[in-house]
């Protein structure tokens, strides 16, 4: 039987309204992530948290040791759930994430968190390239407006474009409700 793990990416204080780099829809996304987290805990499945810290004190957000770099209360680790500290966009780069997955014989990943267009995109593509079957819970991910060539691209469009891209070749992309219903039906 396949073993799955929930990977919570960068659900950290700086991404919330009082933080240094707030994301569009982050509260609702974190609520959905918390629902999935609760289901994983109840099922006894593996949960791994990832948090980002830049290595410089002059970073725009997630500065080392700051309150903004801490995990948000909606997604705190409990018990033996590991927290992977990363300094790059890709959570596999120069971290122990792959080792943690291998130690648990994980073959399938469920990914939630932030930002859709950066760290979610990077970890999903890397995980698929490493041979994991990946599911992204799209409404448990958040991002922000981007600017390109003098145009502002609204966060909802950024998010949808990245989810469509991931679904095309790297992952199953479903809502939290769809995922939780499928898990309940399989139990």
Automatic annotation (TrEMBL):
Residues in Isochorismatase-like domain copies: 5-148
GO molecular function, one term: hydrolase activity
Keywords: Hydrolase
SUPFAM superfamilies: Isochorismatase-like hydrolases
Name of the featured protein: Isochorismatase
Source species taxonomy: Bacteria, Pseudomonadati, Pseudomonadota, Gammaproteobacteria, Pseudomonadales
Gene3D superfamilies membership: Isochorismatase-like
Superkingdom assignment: Bacteria
Pfam family, one: Isochorismatase
Keyword Nucleotidyltransferase: no
């Amino acid at each position: 039987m396949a073993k799955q793990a929930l990977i919570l990416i960068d659900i950290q204080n700086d991404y919330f309204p009082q933080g240094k780099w707030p994301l569009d829809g982050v509260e609702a996304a974190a609520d959905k992530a918390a629902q999935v987290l609760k289901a994983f805990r109840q099922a006894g499945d593996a949960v791994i948290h990832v948090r980002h810290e830049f290595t410089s004190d002059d970073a725009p957000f997630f500065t080392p040791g700051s309150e903004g770099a801490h995990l948000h209360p909606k997604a705190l680790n409990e018990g033996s759930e590991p927290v992977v500290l990363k300094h790059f966009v890709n959570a596999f780069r120069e971290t122990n994430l792959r080792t943690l997955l291998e130690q648990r014989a994980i073959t399938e990943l469920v990914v939630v968190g932030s930002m859709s267009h950066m760290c979610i995109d990077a970890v999903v593509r890397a995980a698929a390239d490493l041979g994991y079957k990946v599911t992204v819970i799209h409404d448990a991910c958040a991002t922000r407006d981007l600017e390109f060539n003098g145009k502002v691209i609204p966060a909802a469009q950024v998010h949808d474009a990245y989810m469509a891209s991931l679904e095309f070749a790297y992952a199953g992309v479903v809502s939290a409700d769809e995922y939780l219903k499928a898990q309940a039906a399989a139990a």
